[in-house]
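[Meeting: bench + compute handoff]

Bench side (C.D.) handed over the final construct sequence. Compute side (W.E.) agreed to return the predicted structure before the next meeting so the bench team could plan truncations. Sequence as handed over:
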Amino acid sequence: MSNHVFRSLHQGPALLLLPNAWDAVTARLIESLGAKAIATTSAGLAWSRGYPDGNALPDDQLIAATCDIARVIRVPLTVDIEAGYSDDPRGVARLVARVVAAGAVGINIEDGAGSPDLLCKKLAAIRETVANLDVDLFINARTDVYLRDIASGAAAVEEIIHRASRYHAAGCDGLFVPGLANTDAMEAIAAAVLPMPLNIMAVPNLPPMEMLQKHGVRRLSAGSAIAQAALGCTRQLAADFLAGTMSEMFGAAAQYSTVNQLFANIAHE
């Protein structure tokens, strides 16, 4: 598949919907439902490998998970690398090169609680490194202005636009603003960051998808919501089983043959 496919999905006409996966089976299942691309959730992926979310995942675990997912899907893969698991821009760039070699054509990288200056340095180092690779890497820069209550109201919109301009100049292709739910703010940010596509995250009571697109959103991610819902179901079903009840477990189950068939024609290496 062309390296350019993932980039083109941000240009419409439809909203790019990413119900984030966290391992090979969830990625393959989501692909089978018609997803145009697969994105990982850093939280779900970290939990599935036995680590907390929040830049605690070892590099080798990230690469192993990326390889597992890339092997079983045929649509583009974008990987959430949190803040790059390092404050060293060159180290982050080397990690991105490994993620690309493992099969990704996109990444998410966040500023978190850190300085925008640091993310700019990471973006510049990544862009320099991938220039020598045979991939059209789509870099989605995430800003946590809302998630970390760095600012609110008009000040938050202004801060996000300011950071977006700097991140774009440093080499990112898209802007991810988790926590953004106000349509006026969406419209203002989307217009200000063009030509970068605006990506937001699903949250409770978010406006309908057609309204999101009307107000400038080009990409909608589920974030960790599906992983959390799956864990919530697992917790309840396991608790019921331990309490001596199992009827709900069988009612909620995916068919064994259906899941097994997802991998029937995939070469095992």
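W.E. noted at the follow-up: The chain has one domain: 5-224. C.D. will use this when planning the next construct.
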